[in-house]
Design a protein that fits this description.
Chain lengths: ~650, ~100
């Protein structure tokens, strides 16, 4: 068992070392096998772990096993600080293992086709393998420092892959932006860890959660810890105010956007909070802050997505919005709902990105949806898979998004009607922008150049097969957790129950919704989504609107939203400009006027003194000897005098 | 307590100081490198003599053994010094130290 657990993250690491050290000498065929192969092996091992976990449960009295910690080696041991490199295997981490390796493998296979012509083929796969390694460490770690290793590692890989085409200056800037924004969040995470250690004298999940159980709700230290950890999650999961890096991160190759910036890395924040559920349940004020942030993000990002024209940017804002949904779910205590939405989101958002990649591939790099259209007949597989994903994200039954979103909405309704209403508006907006994207891309006439028209072709099977598998998952993912209303056994919530058991018993009890109320909620959500989808159809297909060139005069409100609320510009004025101004001030005034002058002054004095004194060295040996003897006499006199 | 100690110690002191000063003046005044070397030798020997005298006076033979070592080292030093002087003479055809003022500034 231990060997399997070591191999799960080790295989992608070995893949990274092999591809990274081999660099360009490894033929593409080998890379195409090694790159996805290591992830496939990890996926198989994850399935074995999953089966063993459930079997273990069957042999024991309890329905599901308690979590097990496997210590690999002692890493740091100083005084009371004892960090061992250990993996925690429980339903939550196994779920994440399956998602990361499963979706990761499909995206790797897709990349074989997508990156085929790229000169950095080997580099790409070595980075991707490294990313999967760090992501696995993140989800498997049994303590906060181990999670932090993965946390930082995925940030690094994100940076490397966003700036993958490093010859483009803008892409490099996007990579740097992502990295710096993440650093701000990481600082919060680090401070949270320090506070955790001073409070609990340990950083292991089990020790901390055991001690935290005994603390009172609303404890000030706990609130501080959870807030700091949440700052980390805000950075990593692109919530307000640190979300601006994610749309720019679309500079990376499309499989990167699918794997890192949609399915896995950005959900690390959600995983972290779900993992620390006890701490969060005991800090209601933090939960309220998470709720406000999440709702604001969900609505805000969705509204920006409606007015974007770049196919990948729309999906990026959609991701931010959906992450807001997950955090909203967490804030109302729907940990299972959030993890469920994370899983289904990984399926359909990865699919959306990959399908978008297929479109971009077919049009030779075109990303502006105003120059697309009519691709339905040319790219049938891409169209159908995209349609399934769009229906899933819009929440149309019986696709996966419907169930996961419904679970969060139902929980939100139980705790506050306002939260539910905001999320409902968000869901309607999601349906609208997704179908705007769909209609403008696949319907109407083709609006690109003639050259692009000739270039159009369906992607090779190596790209479409992952799309189809993901489409099946996006369609059927909802079966993982069918609510009791439809007679389902609530598979996922039963599976995850032991992880959230303590949190569930500690959170305030609300009366469960009656079946009729639940039906009403579903019907309302569905109606809202269907209406907006019809509206989008009417507007973009029937009336053929929505093609606004960049310079067009529009109302102030629309200009505000389509300008992404000018948040980037605002940050530029508030933070970047002052930072640059300060650096320039330090350079021009402090550095040049003071430090440089002091350093140069010392040099000048030395030169001047040397120039003056060197004439003493006359070359006259007799003079030297005279001075030497004079010196000896003087020293003698001083000795006598003192 | 032999013949050496019959002579009072300050005689040695005065004699050695005079010898040393002659050496110093020789170094300062003379321009011939060979003479300067000889003057330095004079200074060393005056100190050596003083050391031997004190040693006998203190009844400690260690000082006299020490003197032998100094003489050996001084002999080696003189050998090197003379070799340098010979080389200088070969290149400049002079051993006048006032001519040797090329190493300056």
């Amino acid at each position: 068992m231990k060997l399997i657990l070591i191999l799960i993250p080790l295989l992608p690491l070995l893949g990274f070392l092999f591809l990274g050290l081999g660099f360009q000498s490894i033929p593409k065929k080998v890379t195409s096998i090694v790159g996805p192969g290591t992830i496939l092996a990890s996926f198989i091992l994850s399935i074995i772990t999953f089966i063993q976990l459930t079997q273990q449960a069957g042999s024991q009295a309890s329905l599901f096993p308690q979590s097990t910690v496997y210590t690999l080696f002692s890493w740091i041991s100083i005084g009371s600080l004892d960090i061992s490199f250990s993996f925690l295997i429980d339903p939550l981490s196994v779920l994440m293992l399956l998602v990361v390796t499963g979706v990761g493998f499909l995206i790797h296979v897709y990349s074989v086709g997508y990156m085929k012509e790229d000169p950095g083929y080997n580099r790409f796969f070595s980075y991707m393998n490294l990313f999967v390694f760090f992501m696995l460490v993140l989800v498997m770690g049994a303590s906060y420092p181990i999670m932090f290793i993965g946390w930082e590692g995925v940030g690094l890989c994100s940076y490397l892959l966003i700036g993958f085409w490093f010859k483009n200056h803008d892409y490099n800037n996007a990579a740097k932006k992502a990295f710096i924004m993440n650093r701000i969040g990481d600082l919060g995470f680090l401070l949270g860890m320090f506070l955790l250690f001073t409070t609990f004298q340990s950083l292991n999940y089990q020790n901390i959660f055991l001690q935290a159980k005994g603390m009172t709700s609303g404890n000030g230290t706990l609130v501080a810890i959870t807030l700091l950890l949440f700052i980390g999650a805000v950075g990593k999961s692109a919530q307000i105010p640190l979300y601006t890096w994610l749309p720019d991160a679309m500079a990376g190759p499309t499989p990167v956007s699918a794997l890192i910036h949609a399915a896995t890395m950005v959900t690390a924040g959600v995983y972290m909070i779900a993992r620390s559920n006890i701490l969060y349940v005991l800090s209601p004020s933090t939960m309220a802050i998470i709720g406000i942030t999440a709702l604001a993000t969900a609505i805000f990002a969705a509204s920006i997505a409606i007015f974007q024209n770049d196919i990948k940017k729309i999906l990026a804002y959609s991701t931010i919005s959906q992450l807001g949904y997950m955090f909203a779910g967490l804030s109302v205590g729907a940990f299972t709902g959030a993890m469920f939405h994370l899983t289904t989101h990984a399926f359909f958002k990865a699919l959306l990105f990959l399908a978008a990649g297929s479109v971009i591939h077919a049009l030779g790099g075109e990303q502006d949806i105003r120059n697309m259209g009519g691709l339905r007949s040319r790219l049938p597989k891409t169209y159908w898979t995209f349609l399934i994903a769009a229906l899933a994200i819009a929440g149309i039954p019986p696709l996966s998004g419907f169930f996961s979103k419904d679970e969060i909405l139902a929980k939100a309704f139980e705790s506050s009607h306002v939260i539910w209403l905001v999320l409902l508006i968000g869901a309607a907006m999601t349906a609208f922008y997704m179908f705007r994207l769909l209609y403008l891309t696949f319907f109407r006439d083709f609006r690109g150049t003639g050259e692009q028209q000739n270039h159009q072709h369906e992607s090779p099977p190596v790209m479409t097969i992952p799309l189809i598998i993901l489409a099946v998952l996006a369609a059927l993912g909802g079966l993982l957790n069918i609510p009791a209303l439809f007679g389902g056994g609530s598979g996922l919530s039963g599976f995850l129950a032991p992880v959230f058991a303590d949190a569930a018993s500690m959170s305030p009890k609300t009366a469960p919704l009656s079946h009729s109320a639940e039906w009403m909620l579903m019907a309302t959500t569905l109606a809202a989504c269907l209406v907006t989808i019809w509206w989008a159809y009417d507007r973009y297909v029937k009336q053929e609107k929505g093609l606004h060139p960049d310079g067009e005069q529009r109302s102030i409100l629309i200009r505000l939203v389509s300008g992404k609320y000018y948040i980037d510009e605002l940050y530029d004025i508030l933070f970047v400009k002052p930072a640059l101004w300060l650096s320039r001030f330090l350079h021009n005034v402090v550095e040049l006027r003071f430090i440089d002058r002091i350093v140069n002054g010392i040099g000048q004095v030395v030169i001047w003194t040397g120039n003056t004194v060197r004439y003493v060295q006359s070359g006259n040996v007799g003079f030297y000897m005279f001075m030497m003897i004079l010196g000896i006499i003087l020293i003698l006199f001083f000795n006598i005098l003192t | 307590m032999s013949t050496l100690s019959i002579i009072p110690i300050h005689y040695y002191l005065i004699f050695c100081s005079v010898l040393f000063c002659i050496g110093v003046f020789g170094v300062l005044i003379k321009r011939n490198a060979l003479v300067i070397l000889m003057s330095i030798e004079l200074m060393i020997n005056s100190i050596n003599l003083l050391l031997a005298a004190f040693s006998a006076y203190m009844n400690d033979p260690a000082g006299q053994i020490f003197v032998f070592f100094i003489m050996v080292v001084a002999a080696a030093e003189v050998a090197i010094g003379l070799a340098i002087v010979v080389l200088i003479y070969r290149t400049t055809h002079s051993i006048d130290i006032d001519v040797l003022n090329k190493l300056k500034w």
